[in-house]
Each structure stands twice: as C-alpha cells, then as structure tokens.
Amino acid sequence: MPASRSYDPHPSYEPVGGPVVAGWAAAVAELAPGPLVLAVDGPAALDWDALADGITGSLRAAGRGTTALDVRRHYAPEAHERLPADAVPAGDPFFTPLSEARVGDLFDIVPRPERPAGDGVAVVFGPGAALCGPDVLWYADLPKRFAEGAIARGETPVGVNLGRGDAPGDLVRLFYTDWPVLDRHRDAVAAGVDRWFDLQDPHTPASVSGDVLRATVAHLARGPVRTRPYFNSTPWGGQWGARELGFTPQAGNTALGYELIAPEAGVLVGADGGPQVEVPFPLLCVWHPEDMLGEPVHRRFGTSFPIRFDYLDTMGGGNLSLHLHPQERYMREVFGHPYTQHETYYVTAAQEGAQVLLGLTEAADVDLMRRQVEDAIDDGTPMPVEDHVQSHPATVGQLFMIPAGTPHASGAGNLVLEVSATPYLYSLRFYDWLRKDAAG
User: Closest Cα to residue 440, out of 235, 156, 237, 172?
Assistant: First the structure.
C-alpha cells in the first residue's frame, strides 16, 4: 500500500565551505608533506584493525612510509574496571549511575610514537589516540545505533565495549559507562579535529575537513534542523509508520520512532546520492549552546539538550509495559543524573476504544500491587491492572501530563507523540502483560 504522507527518513544538509569526500585515499591526499604523527580517535565499536589497514594501505599507495601504533594495546591491565560507577544498589543487573570517568583513565602512561623520518606518517589509532599529542588529528565516528542494534539482535560483537576487547558486547555497559566516557572525550577533542570521518561504510568512509565540520555545525545551529530519525522494533510495536509513512524497518514494526533523542541523534551532511557524514547532534549544543538552547536553558542544563521527541506506535500492536521514571531526587542521588524524565503523551491517532493508562486509582494498594507483580514474574499470574492503574480514553489531540514517579503506559491502538525530558535510560518497568522476550 502506498504511503499516504510524505516522509523523509534521511533529511540532509549541504556542507559549508568544502565537500564531503569518500575513501581513505582522498583523505590521505590532503595530508601535508613531511614527517607526521597522525592520530585517529573514535568510539570502541569501530573495526579499528580494518581502519588502520585502510589508512596505512592508502599511505603506502601514495608513496609515504608508515608505521601503526594501536593505543588499545597500551591500556593498563584491567583498565576497563576503572570506568564504571558503582551500582546503587550494589550488583544491580540493569542500572548503574552514569560514569564520570575519562578515556585517559584507561592508561597508566599514554603511548608516544617515534617520529617518522622523511615523508613518513606514524599512525596512532584507537579510543584515546588524541591524547598522544599528534600533528594531525582525525576522528572516525559510527552512530550509536549500530553498536546498540548489534547487541540487541544477539550478535554480541566482540570489542564493542570500551577497554574490553575480548568480551562480547554488553548493553548495560554501553549505555551507562562507555557512551558517557566516549561522549565526554569526543566533545573535548572535537574542536581540534582536522578531519571527521563517518564509518557507516567502512570500506569507503565519508569525511569532511575540520574547518568544514565547524562551519557546517555553526550554520546548522542558527537555523531549523532535523536529525536523522530512526526506528526501533519491540514486541508491542504497531504498523502505523509502515502504513502511513511507507517506512518499515527490517524487524517488522515501527514501535519507537525517534525524531530527536539528543545523545544518539545525528544530522546528515552531504548531497542526496553522494557521500554523507552523520554529525553527532550534541556537537551543535557543545559548540553553540546559546544558539541551540538559549541562555536560561543553557544555564540550567549546560550543553545537554533537555527535550526529546519520539513516536510510540501501538497501532495493531499491544500495550506498553507499565512503568515509571525516578523522581528528581532519586534520579540525582542514585543514578547521578542531574535531571529526571517528566513526560507528556500527545495522542496523534487512535483506534476506537484505545486507552492511555496513567496514575494510580483511589483504591490502589501499593503493597498488594507489588506482591501481584512478583507473582506475575514468579508464576505467570496476571496482575489485575485495572485495580491499581487508571485507564483514560485516548482522544486525538489530547495531551496527557506524566510527572516522574507516575505509573503509565500507552495502550494498544495508539500513535502517541512523546514529548519529554531527554533522560531515557532509567525507565523502571514493573509489569509487561506476561509477554516473553525474543529468547522466550
């Protein structure tokens, strides 16, 4: 069935001041003559060995001698244990506070390459390479959805977590440790980057010069900009996105349509049909906070873009799990996040009889509710949700306010635009309608 609405899943913008180029050879051709130390930094999820082979091979093809130094081999023993924050409560398998560590904490001593002779290039690569004091700094990036998706699909890629090169990928580690550490590092070094790469095509990476990156980000920060949306599929997901937008991910439903979730969002730079670089959205806020946020919001939230927009699609799907988000003090003291996740649901479309579950009933017994949740987990006894949680008719155009600490869920048959505070990692889910996960 053709889509009934026009929807662009890949909005893009022209670079300012120079082109987006494709391939390692084109980037190597831009290097100055003479001996150079070239550092290539970026996230742990990259195939760093293939990247190093691509760069050194292009250098040799250009007639330049080269050596390679992998900084990952110089991390301190058990360095990965230095990065996570202590879980509260200890041993919690699902949540930890956001790490406040730095990439530099992985090293006892940052390695320094020998300076090459003649026209040679010493290539230093891996997360933390920028710390070696290079002549030229490249940053190779890969959008976060690639690592997250690979782990969620059960592929458990080895080396995707920072400092754990021999271990299968772990989502908890990725969300709460690796990304905060790597984001902090990226934001610290980005202003000095000489070339920025997008490794979505690892064989022919796209790149822009650092000057073009900065000019383009400055331009984007001053005008309307739309990030590249992405969709996640879930057991409760619906089909509105496929039917109305003509957009269906491989997993088969459009449960979560993220239009903007700042920590993971990117802006596509480059012409349609040509090479494109997906620039991390947080760079716009880090480099131009008052253009993006305004002075009062910048003062309150720093460079954290505090609002997110996503669609919850249960058209032809099921109920969301019942859940709530921590209140502000708990969020700050237990999880270390400076603000919490208040939400709103705006009902964009609804089937007849659709409901929004929100708030406790007057007769709710929280102790009984907890016992019934535990029974559901232990022996599959359904919880009588209607005894504890209010149900409201979903009316198109209605806005539901959802303060942190309030039990809630969108029911089946809705398309809800969720406009909420940006924190998204601390959803405390307590009842999922006895659904099984992919592993049964």
Answer: 235
